Amino acid sequence: MSSTVLVAGSANLDFVVRAAHVPAPGETVLGRQFRTFPGGKGANQAVACARAGGADTRMLLALGEDDFARPIEASLGDAGVRLHVVRDAQLPTGTAFICLSDDAENAITVAPGANMALQPMHLPPLDGVQWLLLQLETPLDTVLAHARAARAAGVKVALNAAPAQVLPAALLAALDMLIVNEGELDVVAGHPPDLATGLARLQVPCVIVTLGARGCLARSEGRILLQPAFSIEPVDTTAAGDTFCGTLVASLARGQTLQQALLRASAASALACTRLGAQSSIPDHAEVAALLADTARVPGAAAHAALATACAL
């Protein structure tokens, strides 16, 4: 079986400033440290997939012809991601401006730039690809076209519906897996009164909802699966969701069950929250394996019961 994952999506250079708190509208906050980090949902997920081990990872991305592109390409290359780069001479490389507070919360504004240049025709050949992983930081028409092309080629399609937006039925019909957080579920499922209703409304074979510090749950083949979060002291949650998505799909590509993949993805995203930056925070296979080997830190039956209660399941 092929264990190749193609990620098609966004890549940004993140401009991060640390501050005591995220500014309110109209407020000026004096920040402290400032750094740049390679980021973007697509690129973050590709790095997470590659570092998870066991899955050959490729990425389709669009970059400008500028200096901002260089650290992004270097980070992806260092992680072992094979690149299919679309160059756009008219648009700058995507950027994100992030304020990170002392309690690990953040506020993010993205200038997509060249990410908006990614078109349906740019999808590379899918020979040998098992999973296509998509997000919503590139044009929606392109995301739909790529999903349909993958489905027609017999490739499984996973979409991380972030940033949140209402999705056309045609896109949902082309998915094998949908990954959302609670806020994204609310938008995509039409403001359901609870998690169970939201899951029931989405006609996708597998829907996964991440619940932050509580963990995650999945509805697959009529079953509900739960995975409590690992207990950590968060430093920066910027790429936690992306780490989860990339690790999850890589785990499935190399033949793990969905429950096993949820556990590994939860461990990886927990570790990512303990470090600064987006791609710089994503752990490798050995680090995740070490955490999973520490049985005292792996959530047990009590944590599963508490999560089930919190989810009203």
Automatic annotation (TrEMBL):
It comes from the Bacteria. GO terms for molecular function: ATP binding; metal ion binding; ribokinase activity. Activated by a monovalent cation that binds near, but not in, the active site. The most likely occupant of the site in vivo is potassium. Ion binding induces a conformational change that may alter substrate affinity. The keyword Transferase applies. K(+) binds at residues 236, 238, 272, 275, 277, 281. Its cofactor is Mg(2+). It is found in: Cytoplasm. Coiled coil: none annotated. Keywords: ATP-binding, Carbohydrate metabolism, Cytoplasm, Kinase, Magnesium, Metal-binding, Nucleotide-binding, Potassium, Transferase. The active site is at residue 242. Pathway: Carbohydrate metabolism; D-ribose degradation; D-ribose 5-phosphate from beta-D-ribopyranose: step 2/2. It is an enzyme of class 2 (transferase). Homodimer. PANTHER family: RIBOKINASE, SUGAR KINASE. This is Ribokinase. It comes from Stenotrophomonas acidaminiphila. The gene is rbsK_1.
